[in-house]
Structures are given as C-alpha cells and as structure tokens.
Amino acid sequence: MNLPDLPARQLAAMVAGRQVSAREVLDAHLARIDDANPTVNALVTLTVDEAREAARRADDHAARGGELGSLHGLPVAHKDLFQTRGVRTTWGSPIYADHVPSVDALIVTRARAAGAIAVGKSNTPEFGAGSHTFNAVFGATTNPWDPTRTAGGSSGGAAAALAAGMVPLADGSDLGGSLRNPANFCGVVGLRPSPGRCPNPPSTNPFGTMSVAGPMGRHVDDVALFLGAIAGPDPLDPTSIAEPAAPLGAPCPDRAEILEGLRIAYSPRLGDLPVEAGVAAVIDAAVDALAAAGARVEEADPPLDGADEAFETLRAHQFAMGYGQLYERASEQMKATVRWNIEAGRALSGPEVGRAEYLRGRVFTAMAAFFERHDVLVSVVSQVAPFPLDVEYPTEVAGHPMANYIEWMRSCSRVTVTACPALSIPAGFSPDGLPVGIQLVAPYRAERRLLEIGAAVEAVLGASSERPPLRPVAP
Fold this sequence. Notes:
Oligomer: single chain
Helix content: 25-40%
CATH topology: Amidase signature (AS) enzymes
Structural class: alpha+beta
Mean pLDDT: 96
Number of strands: 17
C-alpha cells in the first residue's frame, strides 16, 4: 500500500483506527518529498524535525486514548503567504527572504488544532501576484505532469505538491484564481470559498472580501474534510460567517441522484472570453457526460457586465493598500508586475474605486437572481493549458492579445467578483496530455451544496488520483 497516493479522508480513518501510525504516514510522505521535490520545487522550506516530533506526539496522544481531530496525523503544507511561527515566511519576495514570524496565521492554527502535521511551506509567486509560481527567492515550481510547464499560481506549490503525492492536503489563497488555476493546471481540486468562510486575520484590509483563504486536495471529499477544519467565524475578521464549520467537513456523497435533474447553466466562454480549442473541447465533453448522467444542461451566460472593471480596479486598490508603504522603501526589489499593480492602485481616484464597488454590487445582486433559475454554473477554469515554464504569462489566448499579466485569468477573476464559491475539478487532458479542469460555481455561501455536486461530478468525470509520471527537466 502506497500511503502518499491514498485520499486524505482514507488516511485519516486509517490513523484513527490505528491501522497505521502518524509516524508511518509522515515517513512515507517525506520519502515522496525526497523523490519528487528536487524536480518539482513545490515545497521551499521544509520542517522535517518539527514534523517528526509532532507525529510522535500525535501517536502518543492516540495511544493514551485522547480525542482525535479530523486531520489527526495528516501531513499538510502551508502556503508561503501564510505566517508560520518560528518558520521562515517570505511571501516569495527578496525583501522578506529571511523573515521568521512570531505568530501563526489562523489557517495554520486551525489545521494544527485539528491534528494536521506541517511538513513545510509551499512556493508562491512574489506576494501571490500572478498565476505562474516563480520568484527570486526559490525559483519556479514545475508541473508534475510535465516539468517544462508551469504549475499555475499563486498556490502553485500547493497544487504541485498534491499532484506529486508529497502531501494529501494543502492550503492556499485566491484573489483572481489562485486556488482554482493551479488546481486546474496540476489535476487536483481547489475550492475558492465565499468571502468570510475561512477567516484569515490579521489583515491590512480586514473589511476586504476579494481575497480568500481555502483548501486544496486530490479529491472533492478531501477538500470538504479540510474545509471543515479551517472554516468558522473569528472575532478578528469582521466579514467572517457565523455558521458552524462541522457540516462543511462531512463526507461528500457521490450519488448519481444528485445529478438527476440538476439545473446546470453552461457558459463555455463565461461570456465573451477567448478559450484555447484544446481546453474548450475537454469542457464540452465533460458537460456532455453530465447531461448523459441526467443533468439538465442549458447554455446560459451569467450576468457579469462590469466584472472586469470592478476586479481590476479593486485588485489594484488592494495592492496599493497592502504594499504601498513597502513600495516606497523597496520598490527596486519588487518584480515589475507587482510594481505595476501598486502604481495602478495609487493612481486611482475616489470615484473610480466607488464605481468599481457599485459594479461589484450590481454583479452580486444579478447573480442571486441567476441562481434562482439554475442550481450551478459550469464553465472553464483557465482559458489556456499549462504554458512553458519560461513564459511569465500568456500574452495572447486563442489569437487574442492580452493587455497585462492578469487579463488571461478572467475566467477566474470574473467569478471572484460574484462572491460565489467556486470549485475546480479535474475534467480531462489537453492534446498535449496536460490536465484541464472544470469550474463549478454555486450560490453565495452554498459551499456544502457545491461540494456535494462536485463529488457527483467527480464520480462521473473520474477523479485524477494517480501520481503523474515525473520526468526530469531537460538541461
């Protein structure tokens, strides 16, 4: 039995049932890290000694008959945007290359409280900017399916670690697609929750709702398990949702009747977006399979007028708020795209920000009406397949030029503006044999229903559970 290839929920049950120890689970994953990480570069700061001590304590606690958390004994990786007490946290920036925080982010605290064992930090682009994971501190993360391609981003290290079997669970964050895009590129599952579902204090913008924290795994049911551990209200997050987290983490049924009669709104291009032909063909085939399984599919575009302007304005405003002071003293150490986004935010006028908020509110209200007629929206996750590692970002999609480093991600960023939860699930492979995912979007705060639908969709499409064959990068 190859422990690193098993689903997280199965591993947790085995540890709880004393079929395997936390130390055995950890050792198997550390061996996989030794095997895969030199090629993939997904985990950038390892905490092996601390993890071994945590696994020993976990086994001792179980032997004494102690109560076990839902993630007891499961190795996890924390994104290098989340602070970890006593463990280097760089935000992928040379400015913070040697930074060691004295506190844990809430998502780290909650994972540990549920029994998870941290094995290290996952790679991210500088300050999480861009859907291609590379930085001047650690270099680029490669795609386990083809190490000459990107793993996506900004949670690219997390997605690559999952795909290569280095960890069964990983956390991430999502502003314009940073949980969904890398999950899509690496053939795993990523959930962008509704704002406030997974609080992430402290923050320079505690009332902001564009960026969220969330879970990743290789299966929908594993993502549900992790969500149940990291969700729930927190007094330091004024937007947090005051609902219990336990129901979110319950096992997800993959019953066929969930799809029977399900009202799917299928938007092939999420409005007017260009999509590579090889990607579009995978999504079309996936939707045909769902229709054959009993779903009622109607081609319908969601009401997203103004979403691009709202997202790009509010993203720039957020960058200026979060990194403006740092820009003033260390701009020369920032990559060009980060500087561009900060400068765009600093140039905004009050009326421009106000208009963006108005547009976002209009989209949110229109989506509520849209979901009165549809149960779930299905569309493309990323408009392109994983691109070469030496390309910073696609400058064109299906022959259409892209104006900047974020425009090619609009299939994700438009959904961000809706505040609706969105799930990326493996759907098939491009003509080059690279993973292609499908994006499922549910009504605001309907994470549990989205996960149940996602599990049924996963059962029809076939979960991508096999470890990809790692091929060394050509010199």
